[in-house]
Design a protein that fits this description.
- There is one protein chain.
- The relative contact order is 0.14.
- By secondary structure, this protein is of the alpha/beta class.
- Strands 2, 3, 4, 5, 6, 10 and 11 form a seven-stranded antiparallel sheet that branches. Strands 14-13-12-15-16 form a five-stranded parallel sheet, with helices on both faces.
- It has four domains: 142 residues, Aminohydrolase, N-terminal nucleophile (Ntn) domain (Glutamine Phosphoribosylpyrophosphate, subunit 1, domain 1); 227 residues, Rossmann fold, CATH 3.40.50; 47 residues, no CATH class; 69 residues, no CATH class.
- It has 23 helices and 16 strands.
């Protein structure tokens, strides 16, 4: 039996009540309604559904029930998180993990406090992982007993049984028979198609581009203007006179599009420490899984408060061009068999599990090793580089980068990610490795487009300076950060961390993760206390 509690997103339901859909499900480039999906899926088994979802694109989550068969599905970057609990013959599903937690321990549950509060208070492997990396990996959540639906996954639930199937995985399989000119032409074709799709989704609405001085947002803006879209607004945030603001303002001026600078100050970040709306946003974005993305939030609030962008605007963020175009490659093309699976897990730990200076615990290491083993079993011919990227896609990209779209949802704004468009991503999986190193192909195309449109060509991503002055500014980043973001952290914590007297909470993400964890335990304990009174 299926019970749903769907409160975060706008869900449409088929007339027969068998399918619920949020977001935009595209099949052969055409949006599908809940009614159309109900007709498509009604006679399909799990294998047929996997084949259908593998051919689809868009950003969505879906719930379907046909007789005793229940299906849950999310797109290949987990755009709209979905959570579930299976107990006996009942499957509970929600888009807010806290609601499932309250369902698990309703009023009148005699042992809820005695059983669950210790679970929240003791250092669990899941909480330790959250503190180390900034999100909960796999299908767990911070809420005991509540599961999350991973990327590109279908769950089939039937009485007494639950089956999980991945319909897409990230594994590069380069084609070696394309010339450089052919690759550039193919990339131009796919990027044009991705922006044409975004324009179709916008349907005449204002398009807002968060514009940095780097490549990804520049690519989106270049192709929007190339397509002749008229109602474009760009904005850039940062401290006054930052390099990022200068480069973005120059580009917007050259392309003759509206540009709004949003100036960040230390005073602004200090005020956010005690801002009730910001605290509400932090809880909203976490949803029992993810750390807080903070940088864009003050800018979006400012733009809306001063009516600088339309309330029905479509936001086109630039994530995650750096990942798909090769910036996260590690250069290790040995097979996993040659290098050992534990080596791969340790290399991921060294790069990503570093929110503070504490070494990840053995239980966190074991969780990561099991995740790597699961990925390894999904395909063949894994290299160290492939496996690391696949973990990055399903964990960091989905649960931290893509999850940052909660920025916009919190303020009831619509968004679309051109650079995660399915065909665009699949193309990048075929690009030969030499064209991925240092994002060679990506940067070459953007420079070419800049020259064609007569705008300045970036030599590197904005703000990536080097030398003694740069290193000194990194050491004193509390004062020299381009966004002054570290002022969210109390100065004494940052100083103790820099002096080596504190192992945690001296960076923004570490500070916010620990603050989130404290709020989470407080909120969960309060909910349990209320249901028992």
């Amino acid at each position: 039996m299926l019970s749903c509690k769907l409160s975060r997103y706008q869900w449409q339901q088929s007339d027969c009540g068998t399918v619920r859909l949020t977001g935009t499900y595209l099949l052969q480039g055409q949006p599908q309604t809940a009614n159309q999906l109900a007709a498509l899926l009604a006679q399909s088994d799990l294998s047929q559904m996997a084949s259908l979802f593998a051919k689809s694109s868009g950003y969505y989550s879906l719930i379907a029930q046909f007789g005793q068969q229940i299906y849950l599905c999310t797109d290949f970057v987990r755009s709209y998180p979905l959570f579930y609990v299976q107990r006996h013959q009942q499957l509970w599903v929600a888009d807010d993990a806290a609601q499932l937690f309250e369902w698990l321990y309703p009023a009148g549950t005699p042992l809820s406090r005695q059983q669950v509060i210790p679970e929240l208070d003791k250092p669990s492997a899941v909480a330790e992982e959250f503190v180390a990396v900034g999100y909960v990996c796999g299908d767990d959540t911070l809420y005991p007993g509540v599961k999350q639906l991973p990327v590109a996954t279908i769950i089939q639930a039937q009485p007494g049984e639950l089956t999980q199937r991945r319909y897409f995985t990230w594994q590069r399989k380069p084609l070696t028979n394309l010339t450089e000119a052919e690759l550039i032409a193919a990339l131009d074709h796919h990027l044009t198609a991705a922006l044409q799709e975004a324009v179709k989704i916008a349907d005449g609405r204002q398009i807002v581009v968060p514009l940095s001085g780097g490549y990804d947002s520049r690519a989106i803006l270049l192709y929007l203007t190339k397509l002749g879209y008229q109602d474009i607004v760009t904005f850039t945030f940062g401290r006054k006179n930052s390099k990022e603001l200068q480069l973005a303002g120059q580009l917007a001026s050259q392309l003759k599009v509206k540009w709004i600078p949003v100036i960040y100050t230390a005073k602004m970040w200090l005020a956010l420490r005690h801002d009730a709306q910001f605290a509400q946003y932090c809880r909203f974005i976490c949803n029992g899984v993810s750390a807080v993305n903070t940088q864009v939030w003050p800018a979006i609030r400012h733009l809306l408060q001063h009516q600088l962008i339309a309330k029905d605007a479509l936001i086109l963020p630039g994530h995650t061009g750096d990942f798909i175009s090769g910036l996260h490659l590690c250069g290790d093309d040995r097979t996993v068999n040659q290098a050992d699976l534990a080596f791969v897990a340790d290399s991921i730990l060294q790069q990503h599990y570093r929110l503070d200076k504490l070494e990840p615990t053995s239980s966190v290491r074991q969780r990561l090793l099991l995740q790597c083993q699961a990925i390894y079993g999904e395909a063949t011919d894994w290299t160290v580089e492939n496996l690391r990227e696949s973990w990055n896609w399903r964990e960091r990209q989905a649960k931290f980068i893509v999850n940052s779209n909660r920025y916009y949802e919190f303020f009831a704004l619509d968004w679309w990610m051109p650079l995660w468009q399915k065909d665009f991503v699949v193309f990048w999986q075929t690009v030969p490795t030499p064209y991925l190193r240092q994002q060679k192909l990506w940067r070459q195309l953007i420079r070419q487009q800049c020259e064609m449109q007569g705008v300045s060509v970036p030599d590197k991503n904005a703000g990536k300076a080097s030398g003694l002055l740069h290193r000194s500014k990194l050491v004193l980043n509390y004062f020299f950060d381009a966004n002054l973001l570290l002022w969210l952290v109390p100065f004494h914590l940052w100083l103790l961390y820099r002096l080596g007297l504190l192992k945690h909470s001296g960076t923004v993400n570490s500070y916010l993760v620990r603050r989130l964890l404290a709020w989470f335990k407080q909120d969960a304990a309060q909910a349990l206390h209320q249901v028992e009174l």
